[in-house]
Structure formats: C-alpha cells, structure tokens
Design a protein that fits this description.
Number of domains: 3
CATH class of the largest domain: Alpha Beta
Helix content: 25-40%
Shape: globular
Distance between the termini: 92 Å
Number of helices: 11
CATH superfamily of the largest domain: 2-enoyl-CoA Hydratase, Chain A, domain 1
Length: 452
C-alpha cells in the first residue's frame, strides 16, 4: 500500500509540474517551489485515501473516492465550477438543445440548501406554483442539506410520466409545502411573442439556446407582419431567464444594435480574452425598446440587458438582476465526462463587471409587492449571486446602491390583485413599459412638429 501510495503521488506530481510549465511559463525556481507545495499536499491526499480505504466502515472503490475528491475540489472554487460525470455531461449537451426530461426548474445552492433561482415557464414546476427563493428541503425521502447540486439535478430529472415528491420551505409560510410532480419532456420554447397594441410588440426570451437567435428573427418577422408594417416600440422580456449560451446572447444583442462592442471577456489565458462586436446587417434599430429584468435574470440575460443599456438602445426596467458575471467553459476529459470551469469574467461595453452586483435598472418597478400582499404580506427575497457561498467579487467592486441609480417606482396596486407576468393590466412592469414606449413616441412627434 505504501509503495502504491507514493507511486500515485509521484504521477500526480509529474502531471502538476507539467501543467505548471505548460500553462504558466514559470521560472525554474518558481516551478520548484510550486512542485514542492504540490507534492506536500498530494502526499496528504494519498494518506487520506489510504486511511479511508483501509478503515472505512464499508468497502469503497478508488474511483468513488477520486470522483468525490474531484467534485469537492471544483466545488471549493466557486458555485458554478463542477465535475460532470457521463450522465450529467450528457444532460448538459441535451440542455443547450432545449429538450430534456424533468420538472423545469433552475436551482442553485445557498447556505448548503438547494434553492430555486426560477421555474421555467410552462413546465410542471411553473404550473405547481414553485417560486424563486423556495428552498428544496427533501427530494423523495432524502434531505437535501449538503447535497451536491449535480446530484440534485440528477435526482429530479427522469423519464416522462414518472412522478417525484419534493418538499419546499417558503419564507413567510409556516408549514412545509409538499408537492408531487409528474416529469415531462421539457421542450423549452426559448422565444415567445405577440402584439400588445397596434404598433407595439412583446417578445419574451425564456432561455438562451442553440436556436434562440433564429427563433427571435422569426418572431420579429411575425410581429411586423401582424402589425402591417414596422413596429413603433418593443418590450423585450428577460425576467426569470437564467441565461444559457454566450454566443446566443451576443447574437440577440446584435439584432438590436448595428455597430460597436457587445461584450468582452477577460481571463488568465489569451484565449479567454475575447471581444464580440455587432454588425449592421439585419439589425432592428428604428424603434424604441424597453427591457424587463428581475432577480431571476442571470448570465446571458444580463449580457443582453447590459449591452442595450450601455449603447442607449433600450431602457432597462424592473429590479436588480442576479449578478452572474462569469464565463464557464466545458473542458472534456474524454468523450463521456468533462469539467465545467469558470475561466473568465465578462464585461459590458462600458467596462462594467456585473459579478455579484447585477444590472441596475434605469427605472425600478417592483412586481413582488402586489404578489406579496396577495400571499398574505410576506415579501420573498430572490436569490442572487452575492448570496451564494464561494462566489467571487467583481474587480474593484463598489456596492450597488439599494435602489440603484435609476428611478424607483414601487407599484403598490390593489391588495387583492395578483401579478400575471406578460398580461397587460395584471403585470405592473409590462404596463409601465408600454406606457413609456407610447409616451416616447408622443414626445418624439411633438418635438418633430415644433421644430422649424
């Protein structure tokens, strides 16, 4: 066992030294110092490995222990880096294509408890009334405290038609909430659209997938066809959109600006420093826009909102966004497994990092106040990046003011009314957005008529 232990340590040390030389280009003395530190720590690791294999109450395989060590190593970095064994790697590939079997729920971990970021629209989780901020206490009969995120995802996914029982804790509700949900094939329609009033369109993006830009182009064509000509204004709804593919966020932004920087990334390696620019062809720039966001708008959603805000192309309306300003790269280990690793931070065109801060709306309108009153007065705080254990701060981060730099407009409304997002008359943020678009066009007409 001792010879085997030192053989493993030697192999790992050689790998570490090679990686250090290849990636870092360090001097020999620096490599020697790093190599000694690496060897000392690997020696501790192999000692623990040997002790567990010899003394643990049950027999455990080396693969079990190594997989656990890899998972723990990546979990120690930040909330978004993870080891993807074959089943989860396959699911990730399916996710980006927009079809998988499960409940339709975006989750994260907060204080070692599984917490809902947002339900995906038109899914079992959404229809069951699961809300942002709900804590998942149990899956079936198993408590979820300290359960790895990837394991929880694996448990909640499954074949269409199978059922699963979950237990939720909701702030402001005394009793636990027990739900039995039936899994469905979650085919996420990433883009939805419809006319609001004559001349004004509504476009909602629920997630950024491989076909999102193509679907958006079709939706815009349909809106213009139904309107009988060019639009007078557009509401782009990114609320509760957890993000997705960076490339699609860039393409969507490019649809609404005709030149300039969309977003740039910065990391340790040269390959991680990228700039993405807009192109004139096919851009829709001849009408005003309002972008709707909230605490469930994350990652790719924040790229789009930040880009359009920096270019003065759109007003951002709603509440502070999630604040995920990091880029994850999928690094395959072989054909079946991979590592999801945070490799860069992204920045808006004006150089803003929104990591752990989020996008501050130009105009604050809070939907939750009405829903809170309808639910008995409890206002549920949304989960944001800054609440996640192990999150990293933005470079030179300055705390965002509680109400941002924009205008705060808390829509109190009727105490018995409930919010229905995307429905005029029952969605204060959407109502306010349409009002602003119409006011802008009235103002533009008055100015044009008064100009000599």
């Amino acid at each position: 066992m001792k010879n085997r232990k030192h053989w493993l340590a030697t192999v790992l040390l050689v790998c570490a030294m090679t990686a250090t030389l290849w990636f870092g280009g360090r001097t020999v003395s620096r490599v020697s110092a790093v190599a000694k530190e690496t060897y000392d720590n690997i020696d501790v690791f192999t000692n623990v490995l040997a002790l567990v294999q010899k003394n643990y109450v049950d027999n455990v395989t080396t693969k079990q222990l190594i997989d656990g060590a890899i998972t723990g190593m990546l979990n120690a970095l930040d909330p978004h880096s993870a080891y993807l064994p074959p089943d989860l790697y396959k699911e990730l590939q399916v996710d980006t294509r927009g079809s998988f079997g499960g409940l339709g729920i975006e989750i994260t971990t907060r204080n070692n408890v599984l917490t809902v970021v947002s339900p995906i629209e038109d899914t079992p989780a959404y229809r069951a009334g699961i809300k942002s901020g709900d804590q998942i206490i149990k899956i079936e009969d198993e408590f979820t405290k300290d359960m790895p995120l990837v394991e929880a995802v694996k448990k909640m996914r499954g074949p269409k038609g199978t059922t699963i029982h979950i237990t939720l804790r909701r702030e402001g509700v005394q009793k636990l909430i027990d739900l039995t949900l039936t899994r469905e094939v979650i085919k996420i329609q990433s883009v939805k659209s419809r006319p609001l009033e004559k001349g004004y369109g509504y476009l909602r993006i629920t997630q950024f997938q491989e076909r999102t830009d193509d679907d958006l182009q079709k939706a815009m064509a349909n809106l213009e066809k139904e309107n009988g000509g060019p639009l007078a204004g557009l509401v782009l709804d990114l609320r509760n959109n957890p993000g997705g593919l960076l490339t699609q966020a860039v393409k969507v932004s490019d649809e609404f600006i005709d030149a300039g920087l969309v977003v740039y990334t910065d990391g340790r390696l040269e390959s991680q420093r990228q700039k993405y620019f807009a192109h004139k062809a096919g851009s829709h720039t001849d009408f005003p826009m309002i972008v709707l966001v909230n605490g469930g708008s994350a990652s790719a959603s924040e790229i789009v909102a930040g880009c359009l805000q920096d270019h003065k192309r759109a007003l951002v309306l709603g509440t502070q966004t999630f604040g995920k300003g990091s880029v994850q790269t999928i690094l395959p280990l072989d054909e079946t497994a991979a590592v999801r690793l945070t490799t860069a931070r992204y920045y808006t065109p004006n150089g803003r990092s929104i990591q752990a801060t989020g996008i501050t709306p130009d105009i604050f309108v809070e939907n939750a106040l009405i829903q809170a009153k309808a639910d008995g007065g409890a206002k549920f705080p949304s989960v944001r990046e800054e609440n996640l254990p192990g999150h990293f701060e933005a470079p030179n981060k300055h705390p965002a003011p509680k109400n941002g730099t924009g205008t705060k407009e808390d829509e109190e409304g009727d105490e018995t009314s409930a919010v229905h997002e995307g429905e005029l008359g029952k969605d204060p943020q959407l109502d306010r957005a349409l009002e602003l678009l119409k006011s802008w066009n009235v103002f533009k007409t008055v100015v044009a008529q008064s100009t000599p």
